[in-house]
Fold:
Amino acid sequence: MVHELTLNLPEDAHLPTLTVAQALRFALKAKTPSTRIPGISRKQFVEEMLNLFATMFKMKHVLNTIVGDPFVRGVSGGERKRVSIMEALASRSAINAWDNSTRGLDSSTAVDYIRSLRILTNITHSTTIVTLYQAGEQIYQEFDKVCLIYAGRQIFFGKASEARPYFEELGFEATPRITTSDFLTTITEPKTQHIRAGMEGKVPLTPEGLEAAFRRSKFYTKIQEELEAYDRERQENSESDTQNFKEAVKAEKSRNVAEGSPYVVNFWMQVWYLAQRELQLQAQDVVAMRSKFINVVVLGLITGSLFYNIQKTSEGAFFIGGVLFFNVIIVAWMQVRSNHPGSNIS
Structure:
């Protein structure tokens, strides 16, 4: 079921010079379970899952295109967000959170993006929490539940289809052609609240009043009943559920992975995968490679000239030591890179 997601990332964070396929392969390799279908190797598992995700999210045509970012040209913004979703799908996480992740997308791309989240949630049986700005009606209908908060107070939580009727029953009125999400937003803004004729003075308008009205409603009672039923179920099946969970986690991890480790693959496999990714980054970051090559040639000539005409005396030995130290520092300094993988400090 799609609840709502929150991760405080204004932009999708990716290594821009990796291709879509390389980024996804790395995510899949890091989470490939040790126990798989008999006869399926790690490589086959990764490739089949990559093909499945690319087909599911209509990304097969850009698999060999670099992901890019605001500085490096790559796939479009909507496609980059789908890469984020596919990486989340590869992680097999139980809870996913996305904060205002449709910002900057056109309406049709935003709808496709939210539908991709819907697919992610249905396939993995996970919980997805999303905060959105100006969500259209098509987007709103993709969600199972909605949570409305006014000045830090919860004034509604329940099925998305029941939110609008609930507030209309309280006495609020929706203006013509307004979407459900915009109508719910107007309730939390005193200047935009519309009260139905004849209900003036009877409708709670403050955060405290709306919270009290929600606590008296059937929706709040239903939430409490669901929480109590969940607690009872956990208490009744706590031992068997815990044992099943431990066995599932153990079967997923590779050999030599510590019992309490959050990783699926062992340390040496992680080193190998990271080394492969670093080689791909270095080979495909043409601007940085060209910059480093020019730096090496120019600095080699400059530092080499420092040895010119040094006297072979004790005083000259002091100068040679200084020049050698400077060369060591230059080599270390050239490895320093800015946070942006496509740039180089020079």
Q: What stands out?
A: Residues 298 and 304 are 10 Å apart (CA to CA). Strands lie at 95-99, 127-131, 145-150, 153-159. The chain has twelve helices and four strands. Residues 20-224 form a domain with the Rossmann fold fold (CATH 3.40.50).
